[in-house]
Amino acid sequence: MSKLIHAAATTVAILSSVGFAAAQNASNHPDLTPTQQRTLSQGLANSPSQSAPAAQPQVGDRMPDSMTAQSLPSNVTDQVPEAKNLLFVKLPDRVLLIDPDNKVVTELVMDSGASSDTTTGSSSGSSNTGNSDRPSR
Question: Is-contact 39 79, C-beta < 8 A?
Fold first, then answer.
C-alpha cells in the first residue's frame, strides 16, 4: 500500500510540473493565429523599422544588442491581448516579439505588407506554389 501511495504521489508531482512548465511556456510564447499576426503587423505598419542585423534572429534566440525593443502600443494589445506583455522590434520584413524578462525572441510575425517574393527569395512564376490568385506573366 505504501508503494502505491508513493507511486501516486510521484505521478502527481511529475504531472504538476509538466502542467506548470506548459503554462509558463504559454505565457512567454503566445502562438498567435494568422489573423492575430496580420492584426499585429497592420497595427505596427506606421512604426519605424530598424535595420535588419546580419544574422536574422529566430525564435529562441536572444535579441541582438544592436536592436532596441519597444512596448506594443495599446491599439495593438487591445486587439491581440495575447501579446500584451511582450516587446517588439520591427524590421523591414518582419516583427520580432520579445520576452521582456530574458530578451529572447518568442515569435516572428511576417510583415503583411512585404511581398512574398521578397521574403522567400523566389520570383519564378514557373513553380507551382498553389497561389492561384497570382497574375500570369
Answer: yes
Does residue 105 contact residue 61 with C-beta atoms inside 8 Å? yes
Long-range contacts of 57-65 (CB under 8 A, 24+ apart): 57/96, 57/105, 58/105, 58/108, 59/29, 59/105, 59/106, 59/107, 59/108, 60/104, 60/105, 61/104, 61/105, 62/102, 62/103, 62/104, 62/105, 63/89, 63/96, 63/98, 63/103, 63/104, 63/105
Residue 114 reports pLDDT greater than 90: no
Which grid coordinates are listed for 126? 514557373
Q: How far apart are CA 71 and CA 77, in angstroms?
A: 10
CA distances from 67 to 51, 52, 83, 98 (A): 9, 9, 19, 11
State residue 3's pLDDT score: 65
Q: Counting Cβ atoms within 10 Å, is residue 47 exposed (0-12), middle (13-18) or buried (19+)?
A: middle
Question: Cell for 101?
Answer: 524578462
pTM for this predicted structure: 0.62
- Asked if 36 and 80 count as a contact pair (C-beta separation under 8 A), the reply is yes
